[in-house]
Design goal:
The protein is α+β, with helices and mostly antiparallel strands. It is built from 14 helices and 23 strands. The strands form 6 sheets. It has a 7-stranded mixed sheet. It binds zinc ion.
Length: 460
């Protein structure tokens, strides 16, 4: 039987990711090791944006009230979560300002200035910034926070077809990132009542964690011309005729790391996918009296060789056991142990973080073996998470709450809001939305014939 996994706060604390003792609820202090992991995820995203020709921008944190109030649906969706700035020093501001909860309303007045003709399209931008939302639900580090480290891409296109092509490109990016972070997920088209405020439709990427819930790790929205109409974003075609632009957005946050921690950690603590591990491995000399120099010299030579691969050496005066435990809690993928016998045999013992398997490797094979083992570990972590996700999906023909517990339920749904809410209430879970597959069946509530498959689960 598997030991119980630790709680996310404990894992983050022991790994040195965040200090959670800050004076504002839902805001946390990022520590050096946590920042290194976060920066790696950001670089991965920046790499994908560069590959797909998005330009990085940085808009101000403060948004004037009149910018914010132009798109009605959007205001309805966000106004209860907004932090307002009402004073400058002692003076009450004539025009209130808000901290961006997301950046549509900051960016789109500028899009209206930048976009003139069809030659300005597509416009593909992104930024990685902090956003602020006054969460009223229980806050939880990385999962539900009030200061969100946020990636958002915003694009504008001449036609709806071109904006749909952008959505497909975003889906491809999400897939590549999911692979690197070892996070499989379901992509669901959110129901009308749960789409992004102001969107034509929203897609959500839902990862499944061993806690028995799904966690939204990314969203892709097609706005059609909803925001363009509110913000007057128009372009002239070749004939000089004016049209509204079509827009999309794609968002992700520090929930990506939250999902990694919840998905891959074990009873010892953090297990990091090799791609985002700041330290790929650690060399630990095991010192015996009288053999110190022999082992240290050997270990130093190894470390020199592995330095370029992101390996560090731990020669502190501590017992090997306590060092092992410390690095395991940091999720470092590989440990290299060197004792006097290994020196004699010109070999090392390699220990893998996820399986805790010990492998004896000849020094001449060590470097290539490390590359192989890191790749294999990524593959294994992804597969394991994918198997868990798949094993928890159950098809239901009736609203049986016991059958749905800790599961992702899959069912036929006629698409009506009434039936949707009946399902959510009866199973005490959220309707994640509809998948892309079609299957003939009858709505699990009203029994009307339909071919739409929907998913439901407990969410965070
Ligand atoms: Zn129905």
């Amino acid at each position: 039987m598997k030991e119980k996994a630790k709680k996310i706060n404990e894992i983050m604390d022991e790994a040195g990711i965040c200090d959670m003792r800050y004076g504002v609820k839902g805001m946390y202090i990022w520590l050096p090791y946590g920042m290194e992991i976060r920066n790696r995820i950001d670089s991965m995203i920046r790499g994908e944006m560069k590959r797909t020709n998005h330009g990085e921008v940085n808009f101000p944190l403060l948004i004037p009230e009149n910018y914010f109030k132009r798109e009605e649906e959007h205001i309805k969706g966000f106004s209860s979560q907004v932090y307002w700035v009402t004073h400058g020093g002692d003076k009450k501001l004539k025009r209130r300002l808000l901290l961006r909860p997301t950046s549509e309303t900051a960016m789109y007045p500028s899009f209206a200035l930048w976009i003139r003709t069809h030659k300005d399209l597509p416009l593909k931008t992104f930024q990685i910034v902090n956003t602020y939302r006054y969460e009223t639900k229980q806050t939880r580090p990385l999962i539900r926070v009030r200061e969100i480290h946020f990636f958002e891409s915003h694009t504008a296109h001449d036609t709806f077809e071109d904006s749909e092509a952008q959505v497909r490109e975003d889906m491809g990016i999400m897939e590549r990132l999911g692979k690197k972070l070892c996070l499989p997920y379901l992509l669901n088209k959110r129901p009308e009542w749960d789409k992004f405020a102001g969107a034509y439709y929203s897609l959500g990427a839902d990862a499944y964690t061993p806690e028995g819930r799904t966690l939204q790790i990314g969203t892709i929205h097609n706005y059609r011309d909803n925001f363009a109409r509110a913000y007057n974003i128009k372009y002239k075609d070749e004939e000089g005729e004016e049209h509204y632009a079509h827009q999309t957005t794609y968002g992700m946050s520090d929930r990506l790391l939250g999902a990694v921690i919840l998905t891959h950690s074990d009873s010892t603590g953090l297990v990091l996918p090799p791609e985002i591990a700041p330290i790929k491995g650690v060399v630990i000399p095991i010192i015996f009296k009288g053999k110190e120099k022999k082992v240290m010299d050997f270990a130093e030579k190894l470390h020199e060789e592995l330095n370029g691969k992101g390996f560090v050496m731990d020669d502190r005066e501590m017992t090997p056991g306590s060092k092992y435990y410390e690095w395991e809690k940091k999720g470092v993928p590989i440990r290299i142990e060197v004792g006097p016998r290994d020196v004699d045999e010109n070999s090392v013992v390699m220990v893998l973080r996820d399986t805790k398997e010990k492998i004896k490797v000849k020094v001449e094979d060590m470097s290539s073996r490390i590359d192989e083992e890191l790749d294999a570990m990524s593959e294994r972590l992804y597969k394991k998470a994918e198997e868990l996700l798949k094993s928890r999906i159950v098809r239901i023909e009736s609203l049986d709450k016991r059958k749905a517990s800790r599961k992702i339920v899959r069912f036929s749904w006629c698409g009506s809001e009434e039936c949707g809410h009946t399902i959510e209430d009866a199973l005490d879970m959220s309707l994640l939305g509809t998948g892309s597959e079609r299957e003939n069946g009858r709505c699990v509530v009203c029994h009307k014939e339909c071919d739409t498959i929907a998913y439901g689960a407990k969410t965070y």
